[in-house]
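Final report, section 2: Outcomes. Of the targets proposed, Myosin motor domain-containing protein is the one most frequently requested by collaborating groups, and we therefore present its record in full.
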Amino acid sequence: MIEDMTMLTHLNEASVLFNLRRRYAAWMIYTYSGLLCVTVYPYKWLPVYTAPVVAAYKGKRRAEVPPHIYAIANNAYNDMLRNRENQSMLITSSGKIQCDISAAWGSYHIYYQIMSQKKPELLDMLLVSTNQ
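The predicted structure is given below as tokens.
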């Protein structure tokens, strides 16, 4: 199964859907498509948002870990620290609930990193920016 659909030999609707279906059947709900992270929600609880999963993504580059919203959030957080520039994530969905879930878990990953590094001033900045 391909983690990044830009690596498919034949990039067409059939091969994209086939890849997404195979990944979903293995409960791999996240798949990259270039810079984008595509999610196929299972409408059931999966252990993909636990503290051990957060820890597995912390400090890792996107290419070092399987596709996940945590990899996107971690990348944005590290770019913010390294480049001292604002970062943003665009989360869009066909359903409001899925969009809210992705935003919440992406934020959770960033909060976890900030608190584990004991940098409350970064948490204050993040809370101000997300509530504007």
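Helices lie at 13-25, 51-57, 69-83, 96-116, 120-130.
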